[in-house]
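Dear colleague,

Following up on Tuesday's group meeting, I ran the structure prediction for the three-component complex that the binding team flagged. I've pasted the input sequences exactly as they went in, so you can double-check that nothing got truncated or mislabelled along the way. The structure tokens for the whole assembly follow below. Feel free to forward this to whoever is handling the docking comparison.

Inputs:
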Amino acid sequence: MNSSQSTTGSKKRKIKAESDTTVTNKNESSDSEDDIALSKRRKITPLKKEDVKKPLKKTTKVKKEEDEKPATKRKKAPTKVKEEKVSKRKKKVEEEVEVFRWWDNEKEDDSVKWTTLEHQGPYFPPEYVSHGIKMKYKGEPIDLVPECEEIANFFAQVIGTDWAENPTFRKNFFKDFQKVLKKKMPGCPIKKFEDCDFTPIAEYFAEQKEKRKAMTKEEKEVIKKEKQEIENKYGWALLDGRKEKVGNFRIEPPGLFRGRGEHPKTGTLKRRVYPENVTINIGENATVPPPPEGHKWGKIIHDNTVTWLAMWKENVNDSFKYVWLAAGSSLKGQSDFKKFEKARELKKHIDQIRAEYTLELKDKLMATRQRATALYFIDKLALRAGNEKGDDLADTVGCCSLRYEHVTLEPPNRVIFDFLGKDSIRYYNEVEVSKQVYKNIEIFKRPPKKEGDMLFDRLNTTILNKHLQKSMKGLTAKVFRTFNASYTFQEELKKTVKNSTINEKLLAYNRANRQVAILCNHQRSVSKNHSDQLKRIQDKILTSKYQRYLVSKEMLEIDPTLKKKKPEYGRLSRGITKEFIKNYEEKELEKKKAKLEKDNEKRKAEGKELLTLKDLEEKKRQPTLERLEKQYDTLSKRIKAQQLLLIDKDENKTTALGTSKINYIDPRISAAWCYKYNVPIEKIFNKSLRNKFKWAVEVDENFVF
DNA sequence: ACTGTAACTTAGAAACATTGGT
DNA sequence: ACCAATGTTTCTAAGTTACAGT
């Protein structure tokens, strides 16, 4: 499924060798900016504990940010329907919205998450409506009852994608399809997947899609309005009397499970969820939302030690699904804040921890040695903890669950990691490690250990985390990822040049972001036309190279002795084929002709005589060596720039910056950077990130992670 | 220690919306 | 003005961790 993995995954990344085990105290270098005039500083309320003692006001009334849509969009409303809607929306925007400033007043104990809680329950997808389009079996149209037709639809929707070709997906789908057929349509002739033809349904869906695309503005408006109404109703909860946004209030619709990687259950039917399957969690005195007609809630509870509003059990993997508040809510914000504070606390202990595990790498107890080695990787490479998984899940690993075959040794001290991690994303990394670590891996891989065996057979995440708690309260393996990501980011940001332009600063910001994303191995699949884009740039590079070659040849014509000093002159680069040259010359000729025509038109108007290509050739003045050298130089520079762009583009195409920005990098680092370098926060945090991080943007420019 | 349950964060893909270059 | 590139939001899968029970 992850086609991107297998093909392009082998980018080599190197991390610095042993030198950085000698832990330098880079933490306290709080190079503050004393040289900024106070007037220039942004006035902000610093987030310091001493200042936190103003508990009088818990909430502040503020005007909600104006709707950021450009006004032009609104003016375009040609119909009455829209006019009306626009004015309504405006009114809503101008309403005063309460912002709960929980960060002014930290709570120590957060085991109780709320005292009152009201909400509308989850929103259920509409019941299935039959379309009556018949799939074919052995070429014959087949009548299906709605329950079966719906499942046939699920497969039809997948036709044309990789899923439809995936054998496991097909097998699991057909098994479940048959189960339902047998129950709902006894005696149904459908027996073999290969004889099924879902294309009539697929074609029907394609038509529907076209129709939807061709809808008029008015029709689209109506749909949008309906959607908005659902959001208005189900999208909000009242938590301790405050209006807070609900995240995923929609019950997941039925469909075929799309597991990632080689998931054994991919294609399995994910059944429709009914109110009877759902537990509602709500305040004791709150009105329980009415379940859809003719249904009852599975259970109603009033547990204020948890944050979910509704819960159900899903049938494919037997796991729970929850309805939670949105990322910008106070509950999520508070736990985010706690997460980063914990990571910052690790900073105080990290030297000690590193010293300890470095010692323990040589411990005579194998279990201790393994623990130390695993911790070394978690710390240095930001690997995930790596819980053991059942064989009804995709075979992926993290640090503790690494197996023999995932790690190879290359003398004298290189370790090569190659395994599938979370979401079956490939982790490939060549790392130089300390002699001791290298030796340890050698020992852990010693026969009779073989492929399929655990590398750390005396270790699991529970043992590791238990041990970590001894160094710091609440410390677990995942804190290292947060810590190292945020810390790396802060260090990388120091490369920002003070007096550069905003764009250059943003480039520095994104570079730092990318370093973190690379550290955490955050990848994204390469877009379909990515190779086209690269080819275009590569073509430009080749063109420049060929031009440079032509220039160098001219130089050699003037002074053949140059060849001795500059052997690269007159040498064609690899990749420049005869075809390429032919192509290039043709294009050049075209260009010349076009230009000539244009010039001649002008000349005609001015009454001058017309020119031919030959005339141009003769008119060209003889270049000097000096001039040619300059040209050669310019071209070389251009080639370099283009090659950089190529690398940049390629790396960005496979690296996803969002995940680290959202989950790993302490937003206060970003905010402080903005203030320090005078970059508007909107340039780095979009609307939803500003909302998610509203607790963080109030730091001052001297914030140090 | 081992297993299963529960609750939460983290993750990439896909759908959808906006922007900006020709 | 069009449409491809890019950015944002939604969706839900896949992790981590704590903890209860055995």
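Residues 330-360 of chain A form the longest helix (31 residues).

Cheers,
M.
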